Amino acid sequence: MPAPHPRKTEGGRTVIIEHPHTPSPLQAWHEPDAIATTVPLGAMPPELNGVVVAPWGDVPIHAEGGQRLAESAEFEEPVFKRPAGRRAAAGTVVLEADGRVWLAAPSNRFAGNKATFPKGHVEAGAELRATAVRECFEEIGLAVELLAHLVDTTRSTTHNRYYLARRVGGDPAEMGWESQAVHLVPVGQLKEVLNNPADHLVVDALLAFLAQSSSR
Fold this sequence. Notes:
By secondary structure, the protein is an alpha+beta fold. The chain has 4 helices and 11 strands, in the order βββββαβββαβββαα.
């Protein structure tokens, strides 16, 4: 049954979710082999893998809060070469300590996506890293620390930089209006949940990164 999203758009509009998700039992969040799902303002366990689950608060994510997290990342990354005619975008692949990955379920399957990695356009004057942190907070409610450059991909209108990240705070149930659910998915099931082939390229990059890390 359709239901209003509890978060309004920037213009104050209410988004009606045509086919709301069903949240998982709380136990699923503690089972590394399970897909766990939460909905806007849904119930969450008080902690997950030793990290408290709680709203990040009223920190201005576009300013000092997100900027501090973005600037704390200490790793090198290649030059971002944006093709002509493509907008710059940045996103995150948030790897949970139990090996699962966080995904957003766009409201009403925006752009045909059942689920996707949190990502958004780089606003004028903004930086890639700060954009990635901001979009992660807005779309899946999490505060994250960026760990490494993962991959760059090109879509029909955007050129995208993805960072590997880890959760350091936040609450996925505090997702913004652009998402109607947030999933925590085992790596081996990502391609089953992600229906956009462009996201499969990001999964391939993640698998390569994990394989390289385990061989060191």
